[in-house]
Design brief:
Structural class: alpha+beta
CATH superfamily of the largest domain: 2,3-Dihydroxybiphenyl 1,2-Dioxygenase, domain 1
Order of helices and strands: EHEEEEHEEE
Strand content: 35-45%
Number of domains: 2
Helix content: 10-25%
Strand order of the largest sheet: 2-3-4-1-5-8-7-6
Number of strands: 8
CATH topology of the largest domain: 2,3-Dihydroxybiphenyl 1,2-Dioxygenase, domain 1
Radius of gyration: 15 Å
Number of helices: 2
CATH class of the largest domain: Alpha Beta
């Protein structure tokens, strides 16, 4: 398992896009006023506009995503170890993911690697 994504939810995407452009020394692969996507050393950094989620949507919270080969199996193992899953495995637009909360309450995403990913 390795970190594959860092997601930030902000009020001013262009301001954060400029910051991360300078910090990382790379241009975003995509950028508009609501979303910017950076790739750096195998990690994707997503800068999302903050929004009010609809009922049933995932929370609009900063999080780190870890890539695994099988989300369902990994989550089952976590549950056997006593970890609490906040959002069980499900297919989303970007792939299959599940979400846990770390002890401080921060959201952690467990996402399924694409066939081209190597861990």
């Amino acid at each position: 398992m390795k970190i594959v994504e860092i997601a930030r939810f902000v009020d001013d995407v262009p301001k954060f896009t400029e910051f991360y452009r300078l910090l990382l020394g790379v241009e975003p692969s995509y950028s508009d006023n609501t979303l910017a996507i950076f790739h750096s050393h195998g990690v994707t950094i997503l800068i999302h506009i903050r929004y009010e989620p609809s009922p049933g949507d995932l929370p609009c919270e900063d999080h780190v995503a870890f890539g695994v080969d099988d989300v369902d199996q990994t989550v089952a193992t976590f549950e056997q170890q006593g970890l609490v899953v906040a959002y069980p495995p499900r297919d989303y637009d970007w792939g299959r993911s599940a979400y846990l909360r770390e002890p401080a309450g921060s959201l952690i995403e467990i996402t399924q690697n694409s066939p081209n990913d190597h861990i």
